[in-house]
């Protein structure tokens, strides 16, 4: 009988393996793993099809040294490629190590394939004995390694379960906030949301740099209980839309939810504008057309949530001051007021740091009509009005590039905001 050609072999094998690849593909899609994982698994399956269809070589026994000398360099190169590709695809370091470890397991496997055949066992007993010792050795190795890894502590988990449910009555501010942080952490919110520097992934918005604390309690509650209703800007893609779990209204008690919201309300940054979008495609409110549009409504006194606030009454609807002494936002060369002890000297308005805008608008200018608006109105709307005010000297359509997204503040910097008293009381 004629041997089938390599090509016939390959077609036959591919056809046999295709259904398997398809099933794996569907499973991967089912678990919503990244598309790269589907390609990876399908690739591995098709690689097997390819290897199995290679013409069979005549078996020759080679020495262990030769065997190793031929295969080790290949595996080393392969491990290098796997390492780099895994890093490029954004796998965490432990996954990279695991992938590379697997390629070495493969090496052992392929070494055994080509090593000398063992002599037939003399008796049934010795073969059973060898089998058992191999099994014992492998299990021992496995147990020894896993014993070194961080352990699941049942006592700790039981304590968590036994803990009485959070009761808000009788708790003061800081305790409620701490309890809310605990709720955030135990409900795995950190798996998708960073809070400034802390957290595990960027699947959802960084609730610290986004400054979720600027939003009303009702808005935050709604976003947790009905996450499909309003999508976070920059998270409109299909996967992000479905990512946030919808079961929190069943999982969280009333008190837990209130504590969680109390914690989230503290997430603000008095030194820079809020940041939107999915890392790394992010932008700040300075360059957000929608925010600037909303800021115009606030600036002109038309926002129902800031009833009574009207920047235009003094600063002018077109930026032409209506009140003598009110800052002219059209002039980029303006300097900071000399009426405040913490005057910023020598910096033009076009270069003012976000923190100066925020400080002046929330605390006002002593002894002038520029009142501490931050004691009366929600800061969410004040930041928006500031973004709009800046367009008088820096029109949105004349900008050639966006302002850089500020670096994520460190733990020490965040603590310093508290000790330096950068937050107002009450924090609106
Ligand atoms: C599996 C990932 C995942 C988990 C877990 C998760 N979220 Fe989200 N969350 C997202 C994504 C993605 C978005 C953005 C898309 C959207 O708005 O639904 C989001 C949006 C939000 C928003 C709205 C942000 C905005 O721009 O207004 C809030 C608030 C929020 N999550 C809070 C939480 C809290 C609190 C928890 C834990 C109780 C949690 N999330 C758990 C993925 C997650
Ligand atoms: C009742 C009048 C009035 C209203 C309303 C008002 N301002 Fe002012 N604002 C002033 C005056 C007057 C000054 C100048 C203070 C001084 O002498 O330096 C000023 C100064 C400023 C400055 C410059 C502070 C500095 O560092 O020199 C900013 C920024 C500013 N206003 C923003 C706003 C914004 C934004 C709003 C609306 C949320 C607003 N103002 C509402 C009167 C007003």
Describe this structure in words.
- By secondary structure, the protein is mostly helical.
- It folds into 3 domains: 6-116, no CATH class; 173-270, Cytochrome c-like domain (Cytochrome Bc1 Complex, Chain D, domain 2); 283-404, Cytochrome c-like domain (Cytochrome Bc1 Complex, Chain D, domain 2), CATH 1.10.760.10.
- Helix content is 50%, strand content 1%.
- Helix 3 runs antiparallel to helix 4 and helix 7 crosses helix 11 (254-264).
- The protein is elongated and about 105 Å long.
- The N and C termini lie far apart (87 Å).
- The mean pLDDT is 88.
- Bound molecules: heme C (HEC) (2 copies).
- The site of one heme C has 25 residues, from helix 13, helix 14 and helix 15.
Write the layout of secondary structure elements.
Layout: H1 6-30, H2 35-53, H3 64-88, H4 93-113, H5 124-148, H6 154-162, H7 173-186, H8 217-225, H9 238-243, H10 248-251, H11 254-264, E1 275-276, E2 283-284, H12 289-299, H13 311-315, H14 354-363, H15 379-390, H16 411-419
The structure holds heme C (2 copies).
């Amino acid at each position: 009988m004629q041997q089938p050609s390599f090509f016939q072999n390959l077609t036959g094998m591919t056809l046999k393996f295709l259904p398997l690849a398809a099933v794996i593909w569907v499973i991967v899609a089912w678990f919503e793993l990244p598309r790269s994982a589907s390609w990876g698994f399908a690739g591995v399956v098709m690689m097997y099809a390819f290897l199995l269809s290679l013409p069979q070589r005549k078996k020759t026994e080679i020495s262990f040294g030769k065997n190793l000398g031929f295969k080790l360099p290949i595996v080393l190169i392969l491990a290098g490629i796997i390492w780099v590709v895994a890093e490029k695809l954004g796998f965490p370091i432990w996954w990279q190590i695991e992938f590379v470890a697997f390629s070495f397991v493969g090496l052992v496997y392929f070494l055994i394939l080509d090593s000398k055949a063992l002599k037939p066992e003399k008796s049934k007993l010795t073969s059973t004995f060898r089998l058992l010792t191999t099994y014992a050795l492998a299990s021992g190795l496995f147990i020894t390694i896993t014993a070194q890894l961080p352990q699941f502590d049942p006592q700790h988990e039981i304590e968590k379960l036994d803990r009485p449910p959070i009761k808000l009555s009788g708790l003061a501010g800081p305790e409620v906030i701490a309890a809310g942080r605990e709720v955030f952490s135990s409900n795995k919110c950190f798996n998708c949301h960073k809070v400034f520097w802390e957290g595990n992934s960027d699947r959802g918005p960084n609730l610290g740099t986004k400054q979720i604390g600027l939003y009303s309690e009702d808005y935050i509650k709604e976003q947790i209980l009905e996450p499909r209703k309003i999508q976070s800007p920059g998270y409109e893609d299909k996967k992000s839309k479905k990512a946030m779990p919808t079961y929190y209204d069943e999982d969280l008690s009333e008190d837990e939810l209130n504590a969680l919201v109390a914690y989230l309300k503290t997430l603000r940054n008095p030194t820079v504008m809020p940041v939107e979008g999915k890392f790394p495609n992010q932008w700040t409110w300075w360059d957000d057309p929608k925010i600037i549009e909303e800021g115009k409504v606030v600036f002109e006194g038309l926002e129902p949530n800031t009833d009574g606030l009207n920047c235009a009454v003094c600063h002018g609807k077109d930026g032409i001051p209506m009140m003598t002494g009110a800052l002219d936002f059209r002039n980029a060369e303006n300097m900071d007021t000399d009426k405040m002890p913490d005057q910023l000297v020598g910096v033009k308005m076009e270069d003012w740091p976000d923190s100066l805008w925020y400080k002046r608008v929330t605390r006002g200018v002593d002894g002038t009509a520029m009142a501490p608006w931050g004691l009366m109105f929600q800061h969410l709307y004040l930041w928006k009005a500031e973004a709009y005010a800046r367009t008088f000297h820096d029109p949105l359509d004349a900008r050639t590039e966006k302002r850089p997204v500020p670096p994520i503040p460190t733990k020490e910097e965040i603590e310093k905001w508290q000790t330096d008293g950068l937050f107002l009381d009450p924090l609106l």
